[in-house]
C-alpha cells in the first residue's frame, strides 16, 4: 500500500511504472500535447500527443543505456533522453529485432518528403 501511495505522488495517474527498476513509464491514458505530466515527482510538459501504450522516460537515460520495462531490457537509447521525454523509435532501438520507420524506407528509395 505504501508503494502505491508513493507512486501516486511520484507519477501522474495517466502513466504506470511497471517495475521498480524500470527507467520508463507506460502511458495508460492518452496524453494531449501541451499537457503537464508528473514523472518522478516533477511536472513535464508534453510537446506532442502521446498515445496509449507508449513510453516516457522516468529519469534521464544516456545514449547507449538500456531501456528497461517490466524489469527487463527492451532496447537501447540512440540519443540522450530527458526525464518525461517520449521514448520511441526516434530515440531508441530494439536490441532484438530490427526497428523500421517510414523515414528509413523513404531514404532507401529516394523519396524525401
Question: Topology of this structure?
Answer:
Layout: H1 2-10, E1 15-16, E2 24-27, E3 36-39, E4 42-45, E5 55-57, E6 66-69, E7 72-77, E8 86-87, E9 92-93, H2 102-108
Antiparallel strand pairs: 1-2, 2-5, 3-4, 5-8, 6-7, 7-9
What does this structure look like?
- This protein is 14% helix and 27% strand.
- The protein has helices at residues 2-10, 102-108; strands spanning 15-16, 24-27, 36-39, 42-45, 55-57, 66-69, 72-77, 86-87, 92-93.
- A four-stranded antiparallel beta sheet has the order 1-2-5-8, with no helix packed on it.
- The protein is an alpha+beta fold.
- It contains two helices and nine strands, in the order H-E-E-E-E-E-E-E-E-E-H.
Q: How many H/I helical runs? A: 2
Kindly, what is the distance between the CA atoms of the first and last residues, rounded to a whole number of angstroms? 51 Å
Mean pLDDT: 86
Oligomeric state of the chains in view: single chain
Strand order of the largest sheet: 1-2-5-8
Characterize the biggest β-sheet: 4 strands, antiparallel
Based on CA atoms alone, the radius of gyration comes out at 15 Å
Q: Globular, elongated, flat, extended or rod-shaped: what is the shape?
A: globular
| Secondary structure category | alpha+beta
Which consecutive residue ranges, at least 5 long each, have pLDDT under 50? 1-7
Strand content: 25-35%
- The SSE string, one letter per element, is HEEEEEEEEEH
The amount of helix comes to: 10-25%
Number of strands: 9
Amino acid at each position: 500500500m505504501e508503494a502505491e501511495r508513493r507512486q501516486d505522488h511520484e507519477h501522474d495517474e495517466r502513466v504506470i511504472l511497471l517495475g521498480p527498476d524500470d527507467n520508463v513509464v507506460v502511458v495508460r491514458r492518452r496524453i494531449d500535447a501541451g499537457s503537464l505530466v508528473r514523472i518522478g515527482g516533477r511536472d513535464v510538459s508534453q510537446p506532442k500527443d502521446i498515445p496509449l501504450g507508449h513510453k516516457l522516460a522516468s529519469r534521464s537515460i544516456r545514449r547507449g543505456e538500456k531501456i528497461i520495462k517490466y524489469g527487463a531490457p527492451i532496447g537501447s537509447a540512440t540519443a540522450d533522453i530527458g526525464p518525461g521525454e517520449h521514448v520511441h523509435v526516434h530515440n531508441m532501438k530494439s536490441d532484438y529485432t530490427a526497428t523500421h520507420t517510414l523515414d528509413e524506407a523513404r531514404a532507401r528509395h529516394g523519396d524525401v518528403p
